[in-house]
Amino acid sequence: MLEIHLLLIFMIAAAIIAVRVKDLLSSVVAVGAAGLGLSLSFLVLKAPDLAITQLVVEILCLVILIRATIKKDLPFSASGRWFFNTLITLCFLAIFLGAAYFSLKSLPQFGNAVMRVSGIYVENGMIQTGSPNIISAIILDYRGYDTLGEVTVLFTAAIGVLAIVRKIGRKRET
Amino acid sequence: MTAYLLCLVLFSIGLYCILRKRNLIKIIIGIGIVEYAVNLFFILVGYRTGGRSPIFARDQVITNMVDPLPQALVLTSIVIGLAVTALLVAIAIRIYEKYGTFDITKINKLKG
Amino acid sequence: MRHSKEAGMTLIVKTVTRLTVGLILLYGIYIIFNGHLSPGGGFAGGVIMALSFINIMLAFGKEAALKKFNLSSAQLLASAGALIFLLLAMIGFIDGHFFSNFFFKNKLPFDLLSEGNIPIYEVAISLIVGGGLFAIFVALVIEHKADKHSD
Amino acid sequence: MNIIPLFVIIPLAAAFLISFAGRFAKRIPDILGNSACFALLFLSIYMANALYKIPGHILVYKVGGWIPPIGISMVVDSLTAFMLVTVNLVAFMIAVFSIEYMTKYTDKWKFYTLFMLMIAGINGVTITGDLFNLFVFLEIASISSYALVAFGTESEEMEASFKYAVMGSVASSFILLGIAFLYSWTSTLNMADMASVLAEKGYTRTLPFVSVLFLMGFGLKAALVPFHGWLPDAHPSAPAPISAMLSGVLIKVLGVYALSRIFYNVLGMDSRILSILIFLGALSMLVGVFLAIGQWDLKRLLAYHSISQIGYVILGIGLGTPLGIFGGLFHLFNHSIFKSLLFLNSGAIDYSIGTRNLQEMGGLRARMPVTAATNLIASMSIAGIPPFNGFFSKLIIILACVQAHHAGYAFIAVIGSILTLASFMKVQRYAFFGVLNKKWEAAKEVPVGMLASMIVLGLVCIVAGLFALPPFSAFLTNAANVLVNGKDYAALVWGAVK
Fold it and tell me: So what's the architecture of B2-99 in CATH?
């Protein structure tokens, strides 16, 4: 699987650019590139549903972020001002990666998913639900309750945004 | 294995961005990167070498499929990420209206 | 400068938008109804529908788009979609369980209505997603900008 | 039993209906929200009563009719029933309080929609038997709470909400990463199934890493000390009913309950995790109370005390002995009652005189007698004065520490309790006793609805001490046994599924 490694390296590069670059608009565009890399990775990893969803979500996120940040990229204080804090953060991340490396060793190797429960979905999914797309069968039938949660999250965010952008929060007559 | 590790490196970059950057939009971007990494990790975990995508087609016998369950979960997770991003952008825009900046070193009306 | 931007973009953009927006909407609907046969589904389709409205709004300015579809109707649509989804899930109680998927079953796969209430779920999801995301977009971008003008 | 999904359906339906019809008729949000909360309280008491009669019983609901590892299951055992009663009791009282209190804010229907969504999320986390489903409902509860913290739309509230949302998202990412690791190792998401697979496969180097991820994620949600930075900003900034909900219920369900459910019932507790939990609990206890003493903002002081009291709960649960867990759960219940009462009191003061600064108050006892009386009860409870509930739970935790040969931690708990007493003496002295400030001559007691919920919570504070004694203690003992005999969880669930 060379493609996935190349895509991951591309995403890491885009992410580093997004973190490092001073200009907010460039940063947003760079993270959009990383998102497109993610969409391609989903395609390579045989998840076309996710590739479509990630693509459209990425476009929407970009539109929102660009409209939110445009003309507002004021200068901001550099992050490397406190050398000590950065050092602590890097140490924490290094420990995190090291621990992750040791724990990854005992996981099943890449490309050898166990599919203990998913085997049942693949075996019986089409007959039991009538849906040739197993993803649809899972999200709307086997695990439909999760999807109820998912749409509720989106609904919550919509109401939350409407609540947050109110101009007047408190009635001021006392 | 290498793919897993690269994915976690991406996670760490996002985490670094959240922890060390002083700009609200950059922090939101960091959260986005972290979400990308977690979603990708889930899909990597469910990959099978030579597997087909989990969609049956007429008149075709498919023997080896990638794990469909992580894909269903990540679909939910992408939506959650979108919801969180929208909410954070809304708060950031309001903060910009109140303080006139995205710089968190200048946003400090709260003591703690 | 700012005002001309509010009123929309150049003629080229407007013409292209006018030609493509119907196709985008149609593509969204296609994706919604074929979610169980091919990649896609209610969520991706809903986002595409929301994007087509956002497209109109960016090209023609907010008045033109908000005349067709404003914030409160978007929010009502999202609530209606959520209610439909919950009701569908509760209809499953007739069959004994929350979320039971029992009607229209026993048909061959690969048909458009082959699999119980999954297509109806997809429509409900697309309503929530389309309405909710459009409401978020309008609240974040358009109304916010309008208020900046009045300051 | 068919009523289990109603714990999620009722609040969700109420939320969607309020959002659909709420802006057209003024009373609809109040009526729908309160009746939904009342129905939830009734159902949870009914459920707890049903489970109380048969100790060790467990109910499993198969969503969609799919048997557990394939579909999602909802699991209700004694611990779940206990949490449901706690959550829905507090939530109903807060809903009643909000009828009057939230008239100070605009757009009440948005408040009630988000509030019902938050309850749906909390109940969903409590009853779920599936790890990813737990994550989804945790996100519903978290996202609605981010929005609710910023409900007043003032600049401080936005700032606090942003901080809270960022920390919460990081915590969620850690939790999701942990779930991904566990999924890769066990290839299942059902908690009972996962517990059996983990027991079958034995120890792996993945487990400590996953434990640390979950500890960081849920520790952030519970505001344990190294991860507590967001709480003292977020909780005071919210409207008072939401502060009560966040401090009283949210951090406990999303943090303590989820943590103990996953560690005791799924991953299997080991002594290293236990000692980390005890240490973090004791640290939170001390740091929280030390930071609280210097505060002059009433709600901020209460928020720091939340950190300290969560420390007691974690200390009790982290001891791992039956008595310790009993004490921890008992303190969890007591804390959600008296802390929400204290936040409602602060809301009542804010409603009446419009300030949260202790130095500006004084002598309010004369003007607001009911608020003063309920506040005195709650303060004595949190400080651990004998006849009230807080005394019994703290005593049990301290005894459990001694019993488990952790005399040092018992000593820390005593010191924390004394400092808490000092801090609440200060609240009483500056807010309610002393000379009435000239500014507040015209201050009036708050309306009846707000008084009613405060009085009920105050009465619960007095009565709840009885839970330490038989026959009522069986209610808590059953709940504690779920954690004490954590390894039986999988077998019980499989037995109930058949």
Answer: Orthogonal Bundle (1.10)
